[in-house]
Design goal:
The structure is a homotetramer of 357-residue chains. By secondary structure, chain A is α/β, with parallel strands linked by helices. Chain A contains 13 helices and 13 strands. The mean pLDDT of chain A is 96.
Chain lengths: 357, 357, 357, 357
């Protein structure tokens, strides 16, 4: 099989680096275009990007020349699919231009998430929303746009889906303890977080609430939100990677903690059925120890090797007596892998497997 | 006025040190007995205690000889009131012995919190529970026992009380981000918490749930729990001092965030009315900034100087649309001051002001 | 005595805040002008400054209007002495303008430190360098400029001085572990320092080497560097405040660790003799415990209350057998107090006591 | 080739876990015995060991039954070579018993490091010290004992060796910033290190000074220390893994920083010549960036995959003008891999390649 040529928009930032890292030796994709802002164009990737992952920069990427975020450049590199890790202002314009120019755009930015014909895709959860892309085509778009969810939504929607399927969901309240990398490398000053935490992340609670409803809803001539009530309180803590979320929920039908654990544990979706290269087997891992999940120990969970960091880890599933049909648990999801680059790559694999690129 | 002589049980630990520190130049109390475990007895306090506060050890305490946790020793030091910061196993026995020997015991340990005639006292919240002590006397106890709440309960109950009074409370869910000092100096290994968090604190959720109901309930020939549903998810984060809590609540009567803020801001209790030396004025501080409270910036809040760390700081009060009559907010309370030593000293001041010692 | 009116240049940054905080109730100085960059001018200090100290912002400062860094504004506020906490580019111009306009400028910036007639002053160490100011006057300058040293130089020069006086110094090597606040609030991203350290601080090693020689040298018709060899390796670690430095030294005359401790412990300078309000008594504190000094426990050392954070704490003084006449020790100095605002205030007190303002 | 059966003494601790992790799929060794203290004997490894690495516990180890640290048990498991990660008190006795019982013991403990016929082995640096083992045999020992150095010595001796060979070494001073894992999982309480550092590690400076001299010395009918002067100042910082060391040195012959970099970069030893499975190629990596090495980014350096964490990373090589023939640099070495388990495995590979087991 010929590999699909892919490019990365915003390749020098911390999510951009995750893409480069995860596309090492990818069996289906070959990375041929790295773009960044004007000041980096023309530099070697080695010089344009201050690499922050402990794996070291892949040799082949180090010598690539950074190009502009311009469809012409991507066409020159014979790219078919574009991953976007752009800052949000830039994303709005450039992602649209790329789609108009005929590229398949997979974005983990928020710019197009709430567009009427753009899915927010977690491949295990709502692969049926790919139907929206057919409508994009029908409207005459040359390329296509798919987005991944906000990094906080990601693990939450993943763990809600099997419960929704088996027991129905009425209300979900989540209190998050989010990692520093979610704000980008320069996002949180050390003086703001050492011996401290910050109980606020701009627009985050709104995003979580909206996105969960869209993801868990239907698509039929348009998106129909799920009939669930979702509330969030979002906090930043001094953890490098891995968002931890304490979830309280009211289910439609009563369920024991064991039943909840069991439905999560058995859950799988299209990526697992299609054996996509980056699909974690299983997508949700249940830990029985009383003190798990923990970000440092569990954020890289996921089998096989290529799916490291792609699994969502759940623990402490217990009854919440303060609510009728109440359940509470704690989840952990790697915010720059499952919550960004890794999820986008899995979307791209799904598009490929479904012959949509 | 002659000062009341007081002693501290468990004076060398981190809460014990808080007592010693906060009793510097106390206008009503004089610390004359410092006890610790057998291996420390006879040593100078300077040598028995590895001081961990950035204030330095008070000079007068450094040369005191550590005594055994024995009523005879405390009588010899002419102690009238005993603060207990004992580990829980030791607390059960020794606090009882001290009360039997005629001392007034103010404990921030859990040993006697759920006893039928022992109040869990937050002086601003439930000073009327001092009636239980009269029943202790009536039953023939020579001394008395009062306890303070768990460090997590403390800030929560403080902020719930004004809401309960003004709007009624139906359901409370709290997700905590608790400080390291809550586990004692040696409680949490650094390897367990750097770049990490631990979503579990043994028995903590149960304590919070039980204690809030007792504190917010009535006392009339016995304690009657408040008719509120309380659920908790407790997590440990890498912060030295100051418990942060994300609270979701359902009130009986609808209230706007402004109304909630206002009722908290105007709240005051017996300590404020009696102008007790360690009473924070006001007990609850509302921060308007979007990103407060933060532990490092707000944990020492409290006016006057002697009440530093005694105020509970609340921010981010907002509507929770996922719940009917839903409100959510974030609170911060200093766990070893308001949640332990400082609260106990305030109880002692209340006992003194009420002529109960 | 009428108070001297003072102003602060760069009042909203983290060192600027230290000035405001340390000038609360100052017996000799009254703060009447707070300046900041154009975007803050006209705002209340409360709104212009994101306060990061755990003491809370002093009430009287909160309502002051921020003014431009303009001599006219400072004259209008009847300022006599100006403290500068400006960023280095701005410092070069504005400090000179202020001195030209007749103000006494006390700067903890590097802009003028190596000027031929400007002393780098640590009042205990080189108060005789005030002679340079007389030469400034002689040259016709209307105001005057004095600087404080780099925050890393501060504790080092303080501890070297008594050794130089008693035993002579040949060579000094220092390896630093510097606090985050030294880089300003936004200086070090959390992603760069959590579970990490950075073995590089731009220009820092050069500054330490040069400044120590000037400070420990003579002034006689110009500065003559001390005949000492100084080398440094500077590292940043994840500590909020307090620079720790591991020092190796070769003395001229042999000295035992006890003798070194003793000469440091007995050391005092003009501030102690003049009993200046912010003078720490003593300026160097020797800790005997094997594991001190530690930043969190020792950075606020200093007696009396107004001198908290002004003492330099030394521990682990021992022989270094790898060097002839070798000694090694560890020192700790609060970088934004003794290494910046506090040292500058002490300089101002010295100027006042010497009738130079 | 049949695999050599190996066992691990002290397999449940943090270094013990590193052994288990690094022996996954080892081409030459098969792990057949995991021992731990009495309370763990008979349990599954999964239950006896609280796994702290982010890789997850290898499946095959999880079901192994933990055995006693008894030669009979190890014989039953047909072990030939024993890795020891015992606490130091236990090490003294048990390692000797194992050697007496005929096992080859490779220890990263300090118990036997200074024994007259036991080498402290860094395979790249002093493989010729294996001659000492022949003397062990000659004295009639049935098994043999080899030790690895203290985790701080490891990277230091590695980087000193090429300089010693090319330019000669006169004096070495090192100031360390050591990781938390060096003290074991429970070694450093979080309250002791968050927003702090500890400038003391018991016996560490003495070990570094002694071990470097033995490792860089000769073996000829006994060990002869190198004629170098070595001094150390050891500090603990809040980093999980990876010791950073700031080194000052005086060479015999003058050398430029470029020459020092070059001799380190070209350095290789027996493991590289023999292409041992865990040998890093090259053993020393020179970083040119001004701000490297950094523990989080560089501690896992090492190629090929099996040698991750085995390379020593050096940066900031520069002239030290305060010393004649002075050079300074910063090094980083992974303390539980290169400084413990990984180095021991490399020793074992060397023994195997040399037919000494």
């Amino acid at each position: 099989m010929d590999k699909v040529r892919v490019g990365v928009l915003g390749s020098t930032g911390s999510v951009g680096q995750r893409y480069v890292n995860m596309l090492r030796d990818h069996p289906w994709f070959e990375l041929t275009a790295l773009s960044a802002s004007a000041s980096s164009v023309g530099k070697k990737y080695r010089d344009a990007s201050k690499w922050v992952l402990d794996t070291g920069m892949p040799e082949w990427s180090a010598d690539m020349s950074v190009v502009a975020a311009d469809p012409k450049e991507f066409r020159r590199a014979r790219v078919e699919l574009v991953f976007s890790a752009l800052p949000s202002e830039a994303a709005k314009t450039i992602e649209g231009e790329m789609a108009d120019a005929g590229f398949a755009v997979v974005a983990d930015t928020s710019a197009h998430r709430m567009d009427a014909d753009v899915p927010i895709m977690i491949p295990e959860v709502n692969s049926q929303h790919l139907d929206a892309i057919k409508d994009q085509k029908r409207k005459g778009k040359r390329g296509l746009i798919v987005t991944g969810p906000n990094c906080t939504t990601s693990g939450l929607a993943m763990t809600l889906k099997p419960v929704q399927l088996s027991y129905g969901l009425r209300t979900v309240l989540v209190s998050t303890m989010q990692a520093l990398s979610g704000a980008g490398f320069f996002g949180v000053p050390s003086m703001a977080i050492v011996d401290n935490l910050v109980p606020y992340i701009k627009n985050e609670e709104e995003k979580v609430q909206q996105e969960v409803l869209k993801i868990l809803g239907d698509y039929k001539d348009g998106f129909n939100n799920a009939k669930i009530k979702v509330g969030a309180s979002c906090q930043r803590v001094g953890v490098l990677d891995g968002h931890t979320e304490a979830v309280f929920m009211i289910t439609e039908k009563a369920a024991t903690p064991e039943e909840i654990a069991s439905c999560m544990e058995r859950f799988e979706g299209e990526p697992q059925r299609l054996k996509l290269p980056s699909a974690p087997m299983p997508p949700i891992i249940i830990r029985k120890e009383p003190d798990r999940p923990q970000p440092r120990l569990d954020r890289m969970a996921g089998t096989p090797e290529r799916a490291r960091g792609m699994a969502t880890v759940v623990g402490r599933i217990r009854k919440e007596d303060a609510l009728d049909n109440g359940i509470k648990y704690v989840l952990l999801s790697h915010n720059t892998i499952r919550g960004a680059a890794g999820n986008a790559i899995l979307i791209a694999e799904l598009l490929k497997a479904k012959d949509m690129i």
